[in-house]
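re the bet — no i am not wrong, look at it urself. input seq straight from the record:
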Amino acid sequence: MGLGAGLRAVKRRSLTRASVAVAVATGLALAGACGGSDTDDEGDGGLAVGVLLPGGGASRFGQFDKPLLVQQLKRLCPDCPAPTVAATSDPAVQRQQIESMITRQVDVLILAAVDPQLLRPSVEAAHRADIPVVAYDRLAQGPISGYVTFDGATVGRLQGEALLKAMGAGARGEQIVMMNGATTDPNAGWFKRGALSVLEGRTEIGKSYDTVGWRPENAFVNMTNAIAALGAGDIDGVLAANDSLAGAVVAAFNAAEVSPLPPITGQDADLAGVRRIVRGDQYMTVYKPYQPAAGAAAKMAVALGRGESVDSLASGTVDNATTEDIPAVLLPSVPVTVGNIKDTVVKDGMYTIDQICTPELRSACDKAGLT
Protein backbone atom coordinates (compact mmCIF):
# COMPACT_ATOMS: atom_id res chain seq x y z
CA MET A 1 0.00 0.00 0.00
CA GLY A 2 1.51 3.33 -1.00
CA LEU A 3 1.56 6.58 0.85
CA GLY A 4 1.98 8.77 -2.25
CA ALA A 5 5.14 9.09 -4.28
CA GLY A 6 7.29 9.17 -1.18
CA LEU A 7 6.03 6.02 0.47
CA ARG A 8 6.69 2.98 -1.68
CA ALA A 9 5.90 0.14 0.65
CA VAL A 10 4.39 -0.79 3.98
CA LYS A 11 5.86 -4.00 5.35
CA ARG A 12 3.79 -5.25 8.22
CA ARG A 13 4.73 -7.46 11.10
CA SER A 14 2.21 -8.43 13.74
CA LEU A 15 0.01 -5.47 14.63
CA THR A 16 0.13 -6.56 18.23
CA ARG A 17 3.36 -4.62 18.47
CA ALA A 18 1.40 -1.48 17.69
CA SER A 19 0.18 -1.58 21.26
CA VAL A 20 3.40 0.05 22.39
CA ALA A 21 1.44 2.78 24.08
CA VAL A 22 0.67 2.66 27.76
CA ALA A 23 -2.50 3.99 29.30
CA VAL A 24 -2.24 7.77 29.43
CA ALA A 25 -4.63 10.43 30.58
CA THR A 26 -4.98 13.94 29.30
CA GLY A 27 -2.25 16.06 30.84
CA LEU A 28 -1.56 19.71 31.14
CA ALA A 29 -0.97 21.43 27.81
CA LEU A 30 2.27 23.28 27.26
CA ALA A 31 2.58 26.72 25.72
CA GLY A 32 2.52 26.53 21.92
CA ALA A 33 5.42 28.88 21.29
CA CYS A 34 8.79 27.41 20.43
CA GLY A 35 10.35 29.08 23.47
CA GLY A 36 7.61 27.81 25.76
CA SER A 37 9.93 25.69 27.91
CA ASP A 38 13.59 25.65 28.84
CA THR A 39 15.62 22.82 27.32
CA ASP A 40 18.92 24.14 28.68
CA ASP A 41 18.23 23.08 32.28
CA GLU A 42 18.14 19.32 31.89
CA GLY A 43 17.65 17.00 34.83
CA ASP A 44 20.11 14.24 35.62
CA GLY A 45 20.34 12.14 32.47
CA GLY A 46 17.41 14.04 30.97
CA LEU A 47 16.69 14.40 27.28
CA ALA A 48 15.70 17.60 25.54
CA VAL A 49 12.75 16.75 23.27
CA GLY A 50 11.26 19.07 20.67
CA VAL A 51 7.66 18.58 19.54
CA LEU A 52 6.44 20.30 16.37
CA LEU A 53 2.74 20.18 15.48
CA PRO A 54 0.72 21.51 12.52
CA GLY A 55 -1.97 23.06 14.69
CA GLY A 56 -2.79 24.08 18.23
CA GLY A 57 -5.70 25.55 20.12
CA ALA A 58 -9.00 23.96 19.12
CA SER A 59 -7.46 21.56 16.58
CA ARG A 60 -7.07 17.88 17.45
CA PHE A 61 -3.32 18.51 17.80
CA GLY A 62 -3.89 21.23 20.37
CA GLN A 63 -6.68 19.48 22.24
CA PHE A 64 -5.36 15.93 22.34
CA ASP A 65 -1.97 15.19 20.79
CA LYS A 66 -0.01 17.91 22.59
CA PRO A 67 -1.11 17.21 26.17
CA LEU A 68 -0.84 13.46 25.65
CA LEU A 69 2.66 13.72 24.19
CA VAL A 70 3.79 15.99 27.02
CA GLN A 71 2.40 13.68 29.71
CA GLN A 72 3.72 10.50 28.12
CA LEU A 73 7.21 11.96 27.68
CA LYS A 74 7.18 12.97 31.34
CA ARG A 75 6.09 9.49 32.39
CA LEU A 76 8.80 7.79 30.36
CA CYS A 77 11.54 10.22 31.35
CA PRO A 78 10.73 11.90 34.67
CA ASP A 79 14.18 13.50 34.84
CA CYS A 80 13.80 15.12 31.44
CA PRO A 81 12.95 18.80 31.17
CA ALA A 82 9.51 19.58 29.79
CA PRO A 83 9.55 19.24 26.00
CA THR A 84 9.66 22.32 23.85
CA VAL A 85 6.39 22.39 21.93
CA ALA A 86 5.69 24.51 18.85
CA ALA A 87 2.51 24.64 16.78
CA THR A 88 1.78 26.35 13.48
CA SER A 89 -0.12 25.76 10.25
CA ASP A 90 2.51 27.67 8.23
CA PRO A 91 5.33 25.51 6.80
CA ALA A 92 7.71 28.50 6.67
CA VAL A 93 7.15 29.13 10.37
CA GLN A 94 7.60 25.44 11.15
CA ARG A 95 10.96 25.50 9.36
CA GLN A 96 12.02 28.37 11.62
CA GLN A 97 10.85 26.43 14.65
CA ILE A 98 12.91 23.39 13.67
CA GLU A 99 15.96 25.58 13.09
CA SER A 100 15.47 27.09 16.54
CA MET A 101 15.31 23.64 18.13
CA ILE A 102 18.44 22.54 16.29
CA THR A 103 20.20 25.66 17.58
CA ARG A 104 19.01 24.82 21.11
CA GLN A 105 20.58 21.37 20.59
CA VAL A 106 17.57 19.25 21.47
CA ASP A 107 18.30 15.53 21.58
CA VAL A 108 15.36 14.32 19.50
CA LEU A 109 12.41 15.75 17.55
CA ILE A 110 8.81 14.59 17.18
CA LEU A 111 7.58 16.19 13.95
CA ALA A 112 4.05 16.36 12.54
CA ALA A 113 5.02 18.20 9.37
CA VAL A 114 2.77 20.93 7.98
CA ASP A 115 4.20 20.24 4.51
CA PRO A 116 6.42 17.11 4.40
CA GLN A 117 8.10 18.09 1.14
CA LEU A 118 8.94 21.67 2.14
CA LEU A 119 10.19 20.48 5.52
CA ARG A 120 12.65 18.00 4.01
CA PRO A 121 15.66 20.38 4.19
CA SER A 122 14.91 20.94 7.88
CA VAL A 123 14.82 17.19 8.54
CA GLU A 124 18.13 16.87 6.70
CA ALA A 125 19.58 19.67 8.84
CA ALA A 126 18.48 17.85 11.99
CA HIS A 127 20.11 14.68 10.70
CA ARG A 128 23.39 16.52 10.09
CA ALA A 129 23.20 17.75 13.69
CA ASP A 130 22.76 14.14 14.89
CA ILE A 131 19.18 14.83 16.04
CA PRO A 132 16.88 11.88 15.23
CA VAL A 133 13.38 12.73 13.99
CA VAL A 134 10.21 10.77 14.73
CA ALA A 135 7.59 11.59 12.09
CA TYR A 136 4.18 11.86 13.77
CA ASP A 137 0.84 11.49 11.98
CA ARG A 138 2.34 12.51 8.60
CA LEU A 139 5.26 10.88 6.83
CA ALA A 140 7.99 13.50 6.78
CA GLN A 141 10.50 13.49 3.95
CA GLY A 142 14.20 13.17 4.62
CA PRO A 143 16.22 10.84 6.88
CA ILE A 144 13.68 10.19 9.65
CA SER A 145 14.31 7.54 12.30
CA GLY A 146 10.75 6.45 13.12
CA TYR A 147 7.14 6.98 12.11
CA VAL A 148 3.84 6.80 14.03
CA THR A 149 0.49 7.20 12.32
CA PHE A 150 -2.93 5.68 11.77
CA ASP A 151 -3.31 3.30 8.84
CA GLY A 152 -4.49 5.66 6.11
CA ALA A 153 -5.81 2.92 3.87
CA THR A 154 -8.09 1.81 6.67
CA VAL A 155 -9.27 5.38 7.29
CA GLY A 156 -10.25 5.85 3.64
CA ARG A 157 -11.85 2.43 3.43
CA LEU A 158 -13.97 3.10 6.52
CA GLN A 159 -15.16 6.37 5.00
CA GLY A 160 -16.00 4.76 1.66
CA GLU A 161 -17.82 1.82 3.25
CA ALA A 162 -19.85 4.14 5.48
CA LEU A 163 -20.83 6.33 2.54
CA LEU A 164 -22.00 3.35 0.49
CA LYS A 165 -24.02 2.08 3.45
CA ALA A 166 -25.64 5.48 3.99
CA MET A 167 -26.61 5.77 0.33
CA GLY A 168 -28.17 2.30 0.25
CA ALA A 169 -27.16 -1.22 -0.65
CA GLY A 170 -24.81 -1.27 -3.60
CA ALA A 171 -25.24 2.44 -4.29
CA ARG A 172 -24.97 1.75 -8.01
CA GLY A 173 -26.16 4.70 -10.04
CA GLU A 174 -25.55 7.08 -7.15
CA GLN A 175 -23.25 10.07 -7.68
CA ILE A 176 -20.81 11.40 -5.11
CA VAL A 177 -18.33 14.22 -4.66
CA MET A 178 -14.88 13.54 -3.18
CA MET A 179 -13.40 16.34 -1.09
CA ASN A 180 -9.85 15.09 -0.58
CA GLY A 181 -7.02 16.59 1.44
CA ALA A 182 -3.94 18.46 0.27
CA THR A 183 -1.64 16.88 -2.30
CA THR A 184 1.33 18.07 -0.23
CA ASP A 185 0.28 15.70 2.59
CA PRO A 186 1.14 12.04 1.82
CA ASN A 187 -1.66 10.94 4.14
CA ALA A 188 -4.24 12.62 1.90
CA GLY A 189 -3.33 10.37 -1.01
CA TRP A 190 -3.35 7.37 1.33
CA PHE A 191 -6.89 8.19 2.51
CA LYS A 192 -8.03 8.76 -1.07
CA ARG A 193 -6.71 5.43 -2.31
CA GLY A 194 -8.30 3.64 0.62
CA ALA A 195 -11.66 5.21 -0.19
CA LEU A 196 -11.38 4.48 -3.90
CA SER A 197 -10.64 0.84 -3.15
CA VAL A 198 -14.28 0.43 -2.12
CA LEU A 199 -15.95 3.22 -4.13
CA GLU A 200 -14.66 2.61 -7.65
CA GLY A 201 -17.05 0.51 -9.66
CA ARG A 202 -19.79 0.86 -7.07
CA THR A 203 -20.75 4.51 -7.44
CA GLU A 204 -20.15 7.36 -9.86
CA ILE A 205 -17.65 10.02 -8.78
CA GLY A 206 -19.12 13.22 -10.24
CA LYS A 207 -16.39 15.54 -8.97
CA SER A 208 -13.16 14.99 -7.07
CA TYR A 209 -11.17 17.84 -5.53
CA ASP A 210 -7.80 18.05 -3.80
CA THR A 211 -8.17 20.72 -1.12
CA VAL A 212 -5.22 23.11 -1.07
CA GLY A 213 -3.75 23.30 2.42
CA TRP A 214 -6.62 21.27 3.90
CA ARG A 215 -8.29 24.68 4.22
CA PRO A 216 -12.08 24.66 4.81
CA GLU A 217 -12.51 27.87 2.82
CA ASN A 218 -11.09 26.09 -0.24
CA ALA A 219 -13.41 23.13 0.34
CA PHE A 220 -16.37 25.52 0.56
CA VAL A 221 -15.51 26.97 -2.85
CA ASN A 222 -15.02 23.52 -4.36
CA MET A 223 -18.31 22.21 -2.96
CA THR A 224 -20.14 25.30 -4.17
CA ASN A 225 -18.75 24.68 -7.64
CA ALA A 226 -19.75 21.01 -7.49
CA ILE A 227 -23.32 21.90 -6.56
CA ALA A 228 -23.49 24.34 -9.47
CA ALA A 229 -21.98 21.85 -11.94
CA LEU A 230 -23.82 18.69 -10.92
CA GLY A 231 -27.01 20.04 -9.39
CA ALA A 232 -27.78 19.68 -5.69
CA GLY A 233 -30.40 17.01 -6.33
CA ASP A 234 -27.91 14.84 -8.19
CA ILE A 235 -25.33 14.64 -5.40
CA ASP A 236 -26.11 11.54 -3.36
CA GLY A 237 -23.15 11.68 -0.99
CA VAL A 238 -19.89 13.47 -0.21
CA LEU A 239 -16.70 11.82 0.91
CA ALA A 240 -15.03 14.60 2.90
CA ALA A 241 -11.53 13.63 4.03
CA ASN A 242 -11.78 15.16 7.51
CA ASP A 243 -14.23 16.95 9.78
CA SER A 244 -13.03 20.46 8.91
CA LEU A 245 -13.71 19.79 5.24
CA ALA A 246 -17.03 18.17 6.15
CA GLY A 247 -18.03 21.34 7.97
CA ALA A 248 -17.26 23.37 4.85
CA VAL A 249 -19.29 20.96 2.72
CA VAL A 250 -22.27 21.34 5.06
CA ALA A 251 -21.90 25.13 4.92
CA ALA A 252 -21.92 25.05 1.10
CA PHE A 253 -25.09 22.95 1.03
CA ASN A 254 -26.72 25.29 3.54
CA ALA A 255 -25.74 28.32 1.49
CA ALA A 256 -27.41 26.68 -1.51
CA GLU A 257 -30.48 25.98 0.66
CA VAL A 258 -30.22 22.23 0.12
CA SER A 259 -32.37 20.11 2.43
CA PRO A 260 -32.15 17.36 3.42
CA LEU A 261 -28.40 16.97 3.20
CA PRO A 262 -26.87 13.90 1.56
CA PRO A 263 -24.64 11.68 3.73
CA ILE A 264 -21.24 13.27 4.39
CA THR A 265 -18.17 11.59 5.88
CA GLY A 266 -15.39 13.02 8.03
CA GLN A 267 -12.32 12.15 10.09
CA ASP A 268 -10.70 13.07 13.43
CA ALA A 269 -13.86 13.03 15.57
CA ASP A 270 -13.65 16.80 16.12
CA LEU A 271 -16.20 18.04 18.66
CA ALA A 272 -17.90 20.11 15.95
CA GLY A 273 -18.04 17.03 13.74
CA VAL A 274 -19.54 14.87 16.48
CA ARG A 275 -22.17 17.55 17.09
CA ARG A 276 -22.98 17.62 13.36
CA ILE A 277 -23.48 13.85 13.49
CA VAL A 278 -25.92 14.24 16.39
CA ARG A 279 -27.70 17.03 14.51
CA GLY A 280 -27.92 14.87 11.38
CA ASP A 281 -25.80 17.14 9.17
CA GLN A 282 -22.87 14.69 8.94
CA TYR A 283 -23.23 10.94 8.67
CA MET A 284 -19.95 9.70 10.16
CA THR A 285 -16.42 10.47 11.24
CA VAL A 286 -13.33 8.35 11.81
CA TYR A 287 -12.12 8.29 15.40
CA LYS A 288 -8.39 7.82 15.80
CA PRO A 289 -7.51 7.07 19.44
CA TYR A 290 -4.71 9.52 20.17
CA GLN A 291 -3.46 7.90 23.37
CA PRO A 292 -1.69 4.97 21.67
CA ALA A 293 -0.30 7.29 18.99
CA ALA A 294 1.17 9.68 21.54
CA GLY A 295 2.49 6.77 23.57
CA ALA A 296 4.21 5.17 20.58
CA ALA A 297 5.80 8.45 19.49
CA ALA A 298 7.02 9.22 22.99
CA LYS A 299 8.52 5.74 23.36
CA MET A 300 10.32 6.08 20.04
CA ALA A 301 11.60 9.56 20.89
CA VAL A 302 12.96 8.55 24.30
CA ALA A 303 14.62 5.43 22.89
CA LEU A 304 16.23 7.33 20.01
CA GLY A 305 17.34 10.11 22.33
CA ARG A 306 19.11 7.48 24.41
CA GLY A 307 20.74 5.97 21.34
CA GLU A 308 18.61 2.83 21.41
CA SER A 309 16.98 0.93 18.55
CA VAL A 310 13.23 1.31 18.00
CA ASP A 311 12.80 -1.79 15.83
CA SER A 312 11.11 -3.70 18.65
CA LEU A 313 8.53 -0.93 19.03
CA ALA A 314 7.47 -0.96 15.38
CA SER A 315 4.62 -2.87 13.76
CA GLY A 316 6.23 -2.64 10.33
CA THR A 317 8.42 -0.45 8.15
CA VAL A 318 7.85 2.24 5.54
CA ASP A 319 9.95 3.96 2.90
CA ASN A 320 9.97 7.64 2.01
CA ALA A 321 11.78 9.33 -0.87
CA THR A 322 15.16 9.21 0.86
CA THR A 323 15.08 6.44 3.44
CA GLU A 324 14.06 2.79 3.37
CA ASP A 325 12.86 0.50 6.14
CA ILE A 326 11.85 3.24 8.57
CA PRO A 327 10.48 1.61 11.75
CA ALA A 328 6.77 2.44 11.85
CA VAL A 329 3.73 2.01 14.05
CA LEU A 330 0.49 1.90 12.05
CA LEU A 331 -2.56 2.13 14.30
CA PRO A 332 -6.20 1.18 13.68
CA SER A 333 -9.14 3.59 13.54
CA VAL A 334 -12.83 3.36 14.46
CA PRO A 335 -15.86 4.58 12.45
CA VAL A 336 -18.29 6.72 14.46
CA THR A 337 -21.94 7.31 13.60
CA VAL A 338 -24.78 8.58 15.75
CA GLY A 339 -25.38 5.07 17.07
CA ASN A 340 -21.96 4.51 18.70
CA ILE A 341 -20.89 7.96 19.95
CA LYS A 342 -21.38 6.88 23.56
CA ASP A 343 -19.35 3.69 23.09
CA THR A 344 -16.40 5.41 21.38
CA VAL A 345 -15.48 9.04 21.96
CA VAL A 346 -17.48 9.35 25.20
CA LYS A 347 -16.33 6.03 26.63
CA ASP A 348 -12.69 6.88 25.88
CA GLY A 349 -12.99 10.26 27.59
CA MET A 350 -12.50 12.46 24.55
CA TYR A 351 -15.73 14.32 25.26
CA THR A 352 -18.43 14.33 27.89
CA ILE A 353 -22.11 14.16 27.11
CA ASP A 354 -22.42 17.75 28.33
CA GLN A 355 -19.77 18.88 25.86
CA ILE A 356 -21.55 17.23 22.96
CA CYS A 357 -25.13 17.92 23.96
CA THR A 358 -25.45 21.70 23.94
CA PRO A 359 -28.91 23.11 24.77
CA GLU A 360 -29.60 23.34 21.03
CA LEU A 361 -28.88 19.63 20.63
CA ARG A 362 -30.72 18.29 23.69
CA SER A 363 -33.64 16.96 21.69
CA ALA A 364 -31.34 15.31 19.13
CA CYS A 365 -29.22 13.85 21.95
CA ASP A 366 -32.33 12.40 23.58
CA LYS A 367 -33.26 10.78 20.28
CA ALA A 368 -29.74 9.38 19.90
CA GLY A 369 -29.83 7.91 23.40
CA LEU A 370 -27.03 10.13 24.64
CA THR A 371 -28.98 11.73 27.49
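see?? Residues 30 and 104 are 18 Å apart (CA to CA). told u. also Residues 154-287 form a domain with the Rossmann fold fold (CATH 3.40.50.2300). so pay up
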